[in-house]
Specification:
By secondary structure, this protein is α+β, with helices and mostly antiparallel strands. The chain has helices at residues 58-67, 115-126, 136-140, 146-151, 180-183, 194-200, 255-263, 277-280, 309-318, 321-329, 353-356, 365-379, 393-409, 422-430, 449-452, 469-479, 487-504, and strands at 15-20, 39-43, 72-74, 80-82, 85-91, 96-101, 161-165, 168-172, 217-223, 227-232, 246-251, 269-271, 286-299, 334-335, 384-390, 414-420, 436-441, 509-520, 524-525, 541-542.
Amino acid sequence: MNYRKVMTCAMAMTMVAGCSSGSASSAASSGSTKGATPVTIAIENDMNTMDSSIATDGSSLSMIAFCQSGLVQYGTDGKITGDLAESWETSQDGKTWTFHLRDGIKWSDGTPITAADFVYAFQRLVDPATASEYNYLATAINVENAAECISGEKAVDELGVEAVDDSTFVVHLSAPCSFMISLMSFPEFYPLNEAYVTSQGDQYALSPENMIYSGIYTMTDWQQGNRYTFTHNENYWDEASYPQQQIDVKFTQEIQTTVLEYQQGNVDYVTLSGEMVDAYKDDPGFTNIQAASVYYLCPNMNDEYMSNINLRKAIAYSINRESIVNDVLKTGATAIDGLVGRGVVTTTDGTDFRDMAEEMPSYDPEKAASFYAEAVKEMGKDATVEIVYDNANDTSKMAENIQQMVETACPGITVTLNPNPKKTRIQIMFAHDFSIGLTRWGPDYADPQSYLDLFVSDASMNFGQYSSKAFDTLEEKATKGEDVNDFDQRIIDMVEAEHVLVAEDYGIMPVCQEGGAVLISTDVEGYIPLVIGTGAWRHLTKTH
């Protein structure tokens, strides 16, 4: 079937009501008034791109969420509500999702936003020419023919999406997906105007002048490595609910200086480093944030040394996670022995995924020394490994402590450190030019699949080149195979898959589940403390 064509007749399919936004009411705070002063946000990691098809880092996704919109969004209550879509429904078998766009929605240049813009965005995501590192999201939600389009076996116009008319967008799935609606708030699924993107060629999204916008703001200034400015979008469908203010985003790694600016009223949001928590915990704007992101060591399975499983075991048992979170970070992070974060998903009886996990490797320096001795025998020499990591403050402290822990538990090993800007570190890991990477993953939707899909053998973001037939089989059963319609059984499958990855193959070494300590001005409203999802800042308004 060619899903790209625009159909003029109604769908001949019985539908049952699914989630619905209910009305065109705003997701912004009701106290918003026009003419408010700018909100200034300080971020520690610079963004990489404003192209929604290829963005992968958290800073880029957050910046895109300011000025682009999707079918749905997270409202200030933290719940999914309609954005460019007014309502939606699913077919009885859960395989067909129909979204009804709002009347009169426009791009910032005044041209209409139509269902065809969503069709193009989905197709561009899976197009091999785009080479999106997030193209697997289309297969994660089971869009028909997504895998075949990504591989080039089928043309992108055979992807399971269609525009029934200008205001009706339909997604066809090969199997039901329990987290489908939440993922529609993710930037990779935001609409794109094909005529405009094509006209910009390879300059698209490289400057504010090379973009048009569907969101609350437009981007009006972009100083790479310095700051970004977003201003009121008068063509946004709900623009009347938002103040005609601007959002200033400042990139800085001088946290102490930025906190001083916060105290002077020049910055409204700043993330604290661990050693600053005690000093500012009594500030009226102090807030602890629980995140779903997990830090872990990712060994390159093809590295001369890290290909040795006994060396991987030795490193895994060297890590004192409790010491890292309690004595080093002090940000509210928690020790974790697996990849899937606590609080992300529970079974139908309320059991957390983490509580279902079997015994995992834990801190045991005696075991570490024993496994290292075995590794040396097998390799015929001591190991020299390098940890590549982001040069942000807390990540650097983690890496330095892990270095000390491993060298202490495994006498004879040499661990060197290679700090880099985040963008560079990601490039190094994508090139597989490393031995160990200290990295972080935040799930894009509330399901273990969002973590575990990274380690499927042919996954685009499988940095460490991990490959396991047992792991792949369990993931296949849970996500596309015999257990896809049995929620609890698919969770069990993924518990077993995680065990293979962490406790049998030592394909990663978990460190901690991220926590955060931030200062938010008491004059700012609309912050959404999302554990999972994009858009925590998009509804910010300043009341004074």
